[in-house]
Amino acid sequence: MLQVPYIRNHKEEVITKLAVKNFDAKDTIDEIIAIDEKRRKTQAELDDTLAESNKLSKEIGMLYKSGKVEEANAKKAKTSDLKDKSQKLNQVLSITENELKELLVQIPNIPHESVPKGNSEEDNKIVSQEGDIPNLGNHAKPHWQLVAEKNIIDFELGVKITGAGFPVYRGKGARLQRALINYFLDRNIEAGYEEVIPPHLVNEDSGFGTGQLPDKEGQMYHITGDNLYLIPTAEVPVTNIIRDVIVKKEDFPIKYTAYTPCFRREAGSYGKDVRGLNRLHQFDKVEIVQIEHPNDSYKALDAMVEHVAKILRELGLPFRVLQLCGGDISFTSALTYDFEVYSTAQKKWLEVSSVSNFESYQSNRLKLRFK
Fold first, then answer.
1. How far apart are CA 57 and CA 81, in angstroms?
2. Per-residue pLDDT of the chain (371 residues; tens, 9 = 90+)
3. Residue 6: which H helix or E strand, with range?
4. What is the pTM of this model?
5. How do 194-195 and 369-370 pair as beta strands?
6. Helix residue ranges per DSSP H, 108-266
7. Using CB atoms within 10 A of its CB, is residue 122 exposed (0-12), middle (13-18) or buried (19+)?
8. Peptide bond between residue 167 and the one before it cis (omega within 30 degrees of 0)
9. What would you measure as the largest C-alpha separation in the chain, in angstroms?
10. Close Cβ partners of 101 (under 8 Å, ≥ 6 residues apart)
């Protein structure tokens, strides 16, 4: 979340940079500044009222001690008026602060200066490409056909048990999935990440902290009875480990890795792009999260990109790295690199990993500080 002082002092810069994300921020920014001006005036008036009330209370105490009861009682009536005034000002201040917060959460993170303009994934910039794309001949089979023949992933059974997008892994399919999870975790641990097993459900504060709430795109599964949310990625519970925490400078970097099942409604997804494992409502994911000093965040991002690339090289997969354009980058990200692996049978590149720098955007929402 952007901070009001930054918005006030860099108004035109914020509007210009958010235009790269195809977000017209002018009216919202103007409203934020106007409401903040009202908040500042109300706060100043409240401070003056409380100071006057405190001063009057001391004077009344002195008058009573001096035996000037009549004069003290006369002034006492004024303290009652000041108390009523301060209560009303507190109510106005509370309403104004809530209005300000509601507007601030509508403003996306400012993109890094290197983020290219664009409207969709078609405008993403190819940074690098590695590996040879294999020639499978004319008899190449897509994965949904292969796994059905080998009976290692059962999509129809998942539909019966739950619905579309919830596959059942069987036999060697289950073993392969488990082996890959362990492989990724082991590589992350070797790179200095601490493994954690977080909850798979989070509360509103956790969802807000990482920017999943408010849920603008309707992607979160909400358990209304307990007001909890199924996690769309391990990033949410893992990042919230350091919510409301003051980190010591010498503790940087803080590095976590976690495996969790992830749950996304994927509202609006349909057709051939969701066939098989291409886009699921429940899927397994191994996450890496790093909390770093602001001065070193982009150095950490580069290291994370190289870490993911190293794993894909070890697996012998042809892959490419994309820098996302303004129209495709997430609401909370300042800079994102996507990793795509080429699917020869489908004749298309498929996203398999994503690495982002949120700068201070999540930290502000999480109330994460360092000294």
1. 13
2. 999 999 999 999 999 999 999 999 999 999 999 999 999 999 999 999 999 999 988 888 888 888 887 777 777 878 888 999 999 999 999 999 999 999 999 999 999 999 999 999 999 999 999 999 998 888 889 999 999 999 999 999 999 999 999 999 999 999 999 999 999 999 999 999 999 999 999 999 999 999 999 998 889 999 999 999 999 999 999 999 999 999 999 999 999 999 999 999 986 566 557 789 998 999 999 999 999 999 999 999 999 999 999 999 999 999 999 999 999 999 999 999 999 999 998 999 999 999 999 999 999 999 999 99
3. helix 4-9
4. 0.91
5. unpaired
6. 143-150, 155-161, 172-190, 204-210, 235-239
7. exposed
8. no
9. 106
10. none
Q: What are phi and psi of 321, to 5 degrees?
A: -115, 130
Question: Which segments within 233-294 are labelled E, that is strand?
Answer: 246-247, 254-263, 282-291
Question: How is residue 252 written in tokens?
Answer: 């940087």
Distance between CA 188 and CA 255 in Å, rounded? 9
Q: What are the structure tokens assigned to 117, written together?
A: 């303009």
Enter the DSSP assignment of 336: E
Which residue type, as a one-letter code, is found at position 120? S
- The three-class DSSP label of residue 193 is coil
CA angle 151, 156, 160 (to 5 degrees): 130
Between strands 246-247 and 201-202, the pairing is: unpaired
Helices (H), 66-116: 69-104
Rounded Cα gap, residues 336 and 324, in angstroms: 6
Question: Can you list the alpha helix ranges (DSSP code H) found in 22-65?
Answer: 26-65
Between β-strands 254-263 and 194-195, what pairing exists: parallel, antiparallel or unpaired? parallel
